[in-house]
Design a protein that fits this description.
heterodimer; A: 317 residues; alpha+beta; SH3 type barrels; 4 domains; 4-stranded antiparallel sheet; B: 408 residues; Arc Repressor Mutant, subunit A; 14 strands
């Protein structure tokens, strides 16, 4: 079993699509390449390659081309892919998607397949405790959300919040977000007021008491949704204690621009307002390696650090 | 196709370039050329541009133009770095044979090698066809059955489209797992084969770059599950290469720092070591390890004192360090701080000292590993204690320097 193999490659996928058509014009071939390949692939796959080098197409008298093969290429699930599915069936979250009987049937189907890995091969040493506990209520709510996202259907949700207790609202569900750090799933949605899309909201699925589908649908344009806006923070990351390498790894998920100067790296990082506290905490965990330049976040950091200094060293600032 | 191709034979070289563009994003052509030739840089950059076009940006700095990958990983439903895995090079006869074999066996018949070769009109010898069939048996594409002395080949009946039809929910399940860090690219390859994209799930704290280590990880996990030794070729931060043998035991993953480590027993040092996956260039699976269970037992017995990845540097694993810190938080209005302490405590314990005061304590191999986490409680810490005075001094000095740094 090979992991990095041409059988999963973009070029094989393109050829598979070409061979699935009984007759193609040059334009059809180019369209398949453009839609399914990398930016420059059109420079490397052309009719001569398909016809002469690979010998997979033959010309027709009417300037079209046909596959030399007779059948539509079958989509075979390889051993690697089956072993991947088998490994995922052991993940408790697989029960969110497959009902008990389907889970059992698929497990039986893959009885002779070795799982690609076992959960005990991994230890996620800094994952937070108190992640999602998946019971039947969670599964039911999850599936209502999942189907509503697909149907662009409004949902009515009762949920609990740590601050305000039980809440109720009508929402347009957008996506389900998973955080491996928190080990929880969240619904990203938009609150509706008088059936108008109001603002972005995030609700932990485990906090949902009851989710119900409404008989209303919204055929939205994704570009017009009122997503939470980005804020920016400017940072200086120093060399000391391998700081640049550590910072760049830890903050890799963020959108950012960096510029290397002597002794430090200047970084402009984009973040959402709702993540500000988490971001500040993580920046502070780097100690003196990261210096916050942007005044607003710098002030917040300063406040915490001064408070800390007073607590530990007993001096007024 | 000429000298340059957007396809690659080996993954590791490209892996380093993508990582540099994505993780660092501040290196110029000159910086790369100091290690490798400028032409290699140009080729690798061109490939990454072709695979990830919409995410590549350029920064004009005093040192020169720097390409960087500009992505908010929490907003993308598909990992664009998977494209690197879809770029394996192949020969003309490999692609031709692939589609001919699928076509010839599509009818459902069981055919022997001569019958297959007869239907391949091109000048390809039987040995090449036989090797390809053997390879496809390993991959699960072709099945083989012996009748007398003759092998009969047929196509696997496991079809992705049929699985999706028969097992309701499987498609959504793969959409979800294709974005998670354990071999998500394989899930994505299943979706791609069906022309399906993940349009439901997003991933926060999403280290998309982990996929670059998936091939290495695949061999390590295979060795762990077969209780085998591995030979690794490693590149240090300074670019120095070294090779040695390890008994692989576990993969330690940080969901916060973006680092993944192989935890292994190194016989030469007679102790457990940790190796960052992104520094491992190559893994070769070696012989069965007779004492595998003993080494695994050593890991299990000591894991509760490993805060992150360090098992200390003594053979007897007896270098315990004690660390504790105490925080203050209002139980009525700042419960979230106390909850965070409980939620993130790992292998330590949390004790309520008195109203609004909580103490975390742990016995660990290396208390230095706890410092970044302790600093996330800045503004709350009223006491720090431990039996490694250098670590306590380091933390206190850092807090003082931070105060100096932010003093107007």
């Amino acid at each position: 079993m090979e992991f990095f193999s041409e059988i999963y490659g973009a070029y094989y996928r393109i050829v598979e699509k070409i061979l699935a058509k009984p007759k193609l014009t040059l334009k059809d071939i180019q369209a398949i390449i453009t839609e399914n390949a990398f930016d420059e692939t059109g420079l490397y796959i052309d009719i001569n390659i398909l016809k002469n080098d690979w010998g997979l197409l033959k010309p027709n008298p009417d300037n079209t081309f046909s596959p030399i093969t007779k059948n539509i290429p079958p989509k075979i699930l390889t051993n690697l892919q089956k072993s991947y599915i088998k490994a995922k069936l052991a993940d408790p979250r697989s029960h969110l998607f497959l009902d008990q009987q389907t889970h059992k049937n698929l497990s039986q189907k893959l009885a002779d397949t070795q799982p690609l890995y076992q959960s005990q091969n991994f230890h996620f040493f800094d994952v937070f405790e108190g992640g999602d506990s998946i019971d039947q209520n969670y599964i039911d709510n999850f599936n209502i959300i999942l189907n509503s996202i697909k149907q662009k259907r409004i949902i009515k949700i009762n949920y609990s919040t740590p601050k305000s207790g039980e809440m109720y609202g009508k929402f347009l569900p957008y996506k389900i977000q998973f955080s491996p750090k928190n080990n929880i799933m969240r619904l990203i949605c938009f609150r509706l007021k008088n059936n108008q899309i109001e603002k972005q909201n995030t609700i932990n699925i485990s906090r949902i008491i009851l989710a119900e589908q409404a008989d209303e649908f919204i055929n939205y344009n994704e570009n017009e949704l009122p997503f939470e806006k980005y804020k920016q923070v400017e940072l200086e990351v120093s060399y000391q204690r391998n700081g640049i390498e550590r910072f760049m790894n830890e903050f890799a998920p963020y959108r950012k621009k960096s510029e290397y100067n002597s002794g430090y790296c200047k970084v402009i990082l984009d973040y959402n307002k709702s993540d500000e506290t988490e971001l500040l905490i993580r920046i502070l965990s780097f100690g003196t390696v990261i210096k916050i330049i942007s005044p607003e976040m710098r002030e917040k950091a300063k406040e915490r650090i001064e408070k800390q200094y007073k607590l530990l060293f007993g001096k007024d600032c | 196709m000429g000298r340059y191709s957007e396809l690659i034979k080996h993954f590791y070289k490209t892996r380093d370039y993508i990582r540099d563009f994505f993780i660092n994003g501040f290196k110029t052509r000159q910086d790369f050329a100091e290690k490798k030739s400028a032409r290699t840089y140009d080729d690798e950059k061109r490939r990454v541009e072709s695979w990830l076009k919409e995410y590549i940006k350029y920064n004009n700095t005093k040192k020169g133009k720097t390409p960087y990958i500009f992505i908010d990983c929490s907003k993308i439903s598909e990992n664009p770095l998977y494209n690197a895995f879809y770029s394996k090079s192949f020969t003309n006869s490999q692609i031709l044979l692939h589609f001919l074999i699928l076509d010839i066996l599509s009818g459902g018949e069981k055919l022997n090698i001569s019958e297959i070769a007869e239907q391949i009109y091109y000048d390809i010898d039987e040995n090449t066809i036989r090797n390809k069939l053997k390879n496809y048996i390993d991959e699960g594409i072709v099945l083989v059955e012996k009748q007398g002395k003759t092998n009969y080949y047929s196509l696997s009946t496991d079809r992705t489209d049929e699985y999706f039809k028969e097992y309701a929910g499987l498609e959504d399940m793969i959409k979800f797992f294709s974005g998670t860090s354990e071999f998500g690219v394989i899930g994505d390859s299943i979706l791609k084969s069906m022309d399906i994209s993940n349009d439901i799930f997003l991933f926060k704290h999403n280290f998309i770059v982990h996929t670059l280590e998936d091939e290495i990880l695949f061999y390590i996990i295979t060795a762990i599950n077969q209780k085998k030794n591995i030979n690794v070729k490693k590149i240090s931060k300074n670019g120095n290469e070294s090779s040695y043998s390890l008994v692989p035991l576990k993969i330690h993953v940080s969901t916060q720092t973006g680092r993944r480590y192989l935890i292994a027993y190194r016989k030469k040092l007679e102790r457990i070591v940790s190796e960052r996956l992104d520094y491992i260039k190559e893994v070769k699976i070696a012989s069965i390890e007779e004492n595998y269970d003993t080494y695994m037992q050593g890991y299990t017995q000591n894991a509760d004192r490993c805060f992150s990845v360090s098992f200390g540097n003594r053979k007897d694993n007896k270098n315990n360090e004690h660390i504790s810190f105490t925080i203050v938080a209002d139980e009525k209005t700042e419960r979230y701080v106390i909850d965070r302490l409980y939620r993130e405590k790992r292998n330590g314990t949390v004790e309520r000292i008195r109203e609004n005061v909580y103490k975390y304590s742990a016995e660990v191999f290396d208390s230095n590993e706890t410092l970044p986490w302790i600093k996330t409680f800045i503004g709350r810490i009223i006491d720090i204690d431990g039996n490694n005075p250098a670590i306590i001094a380091k933390l206190k000095r850092d807090l003082q320097l931070m105060y100096e740094m932010y003093k107007d």
